[in-house]
Amino acid sequence: NGTIQTLETRVADKLSDYRFQHSVRVRDYAVKLAHDNGVDEDKAEVAALVHDYAKELSDETFLSVIKAKHLDSDLLNWGNYIWHGVVGAEIIRDELGIEDDEILNAVREHTTGGAEEMTPLSQVLFMADYLEKGRDFPGVETARQITDQSLAAGVRYQIVHTVLRLVKKETPIYPKSITTYNYWLNRGL
Ligand code: DGI
Ligand code: FE
Ligand code: FE
Ligand code: FE
Fold this sequence. Notes:
Layout: H1 2-14, H2 17-37, H3 41-50, H4 59-68, H5 80-96, H6 101-108, H7 120-131, H8 140-149, H9 151-168, H10 175-185
Helix pairs in contact: 1-3, 2-3, 2-7, 3-6, 3-7, 4-5, 5-6, 6-7, 7-9, 8-9, 9-10
The chain binds 2'-deoxyguanosine-5'-diphosphate and fe (iii) ion (3 copies).
């Protein structure tokens, strides 16, 4: 597909080789998860290819977009790890012309997840970013097996373990990550 080829080239030009390779692996994993879960594979492919498109932009660039677009001023208290998804979605729409709100929301949520508003497409991207073949953290194989059984159980596993890891490192936790944690913990999986 020519559109996907063009998109892939745009992403490759924007990112270091290692992060582009990560994006390609996320694409492969996202298409598989989409297939297994009845999610639109073309949307999953696009969302995955572009999800970290903004990750290597400077803090100054993110700060100027937050101001120009009047995004939530609380964003000013956070950093690249939150901005590249939430603010990155605006940059992806402007630079790549992707207008699909389901795709843009999946990119916005790919780091923190989301609560009841999290669509199956967004769950697929969240899990593919966590599980792509290059990931090798302790527990990744368990996480892959759980996600093969149930996408929602995978989302729960990831958010629990991410919050645990952040607490252990005494790192600040973005409020949306806590909302995601509470929601998926109580879904009775
Ligand atoms: O962009 P990637 O490295 O592929 O992965 P990502 O966007 O899922 O995560 C980016 C980083 O953000 C990762 O090191 C984990 C971290 N992170 C996720 N949620 C939070 C967080 N960091 C803080 N401080 N607070 C959070 O709530
Ligand atoms: Fe990311
Ligand atoms: Fe992620
Ligand atoms: Fe990523």
